[in-house]
Amino acid sequence: MEELLIQAVKDVNEKDILMLVDQAFATGYTPEQIIEILKRGMDCVGKEYEIGNYFIADLMMSGIIFKEILSQERMQPTSSKDDQNAQDTILVGTVKGDLHDIGKGLFSGMALSCGYHIVDLGVDVSPQAFVDQIKELKPQILALSGVLHTAIKSMKDTVDLIEKNGLRDQIKIIVGGNPLTLETFHFIGADAYSRDAAEGIKIIQNWIKEQE
Ligand code: B12
């Protein structure tokens, strides 16, 4: 089943993907497990693009299908809402120059399901736009997303501008995305990093607990 679904995603075969997702649900896979399998398929799509077998249209199509599945009611994360968390605002956005928003959407969806108040600024968000929103909304947490290598520099520019505006002490910053490493995390100057949306949520939950 898993291999078939990965192959269907790799082939960008929408009909088979939807059918196999149905089957996965019927046989008891959780939304989290299905997302993980789909993600492995997306990695294959990315590799095919990298070696020149696929075009940008294939990347786009794979993204559209992934988003379509994520929007299904049954795919919504299962964690229980905690009304306590509604007081905590997380400002989210994909950094300047990067248009990828599926990982960010996953993260926001999970955070919402935990009851956090999410303000999502979308994609290609400039450092100044983040700073303006921090001043206006005073969120406890800033979550920056980026999957392009060039996103690392945009993340650093964002953290630097926050610092320059004297706002760094009032906000915890987590950066998320596949190209992040311990080294790039230190370069950026954030408080935490993760390549996994669910792990990112756990980090934030710990921060909030520490503050209480
Ligand atoms: C779909 C896709 C697209 C779609 C995006 C659609 C959309 N709405 O997002 C479109 C067609 C727009 C696109 C465009 C491009 N893409 Co593209 N794309 C992909 C692809 C195939 C899948 C991405 C995806 O959604 N994966 C599934 C999600 C769930 O994974 P994710 O976003 O990485 O999120 C996970 C983690 O990163 C992390 N995470 C992400 N955000 C956050 C935030 C927080 C707070 C936390 C905690 C965690 C977290 O958690 C998630 C898992 O739980 C990847 C291949 C791959 N291996 O990912 C290439 C890929 C990312 N793209 C790539 C490239 C090169 C491009 C283009 C430059 C191509 C071009 N020549 O134009 C453009 C760039 C446009 C731009 N300026 O951004 C490269 C990037 C190489 C690099 N690292 O620099 C990749 C890796 C493909 C490859 N192997 O070459 N792409």
TrEMBL record:
Superkingdom classification of source: Bacteria
InterPro entries associated with the record: Cbl-bd_cap (IPR003759), Cobalamin-bd (IPR006158), Cobalamin-bd_sf (IPR036724), Met_Synthase/Corrinoid (IPR050554), Meth_synthase_dom (IPR036594)
Key words, A-Z: Cobalt, Metal-binding
Domain spans labelled B12-binding: 87-212
Keyword Metal-binding: yes
Gene3D superfamilies (UniProt xref): Cobalamin-binding domain, Methionine synthase domain
Domain B12-binding N-terminal positions: 1-85
SMART domains xref list: B12-binding_2
PANTHER family: METHIONINE SYNTHASE (PTHR45833:SF1)
The protein, known as: Cobalamin-binding protein
Natural source organism: Acetobacterium fimetarium
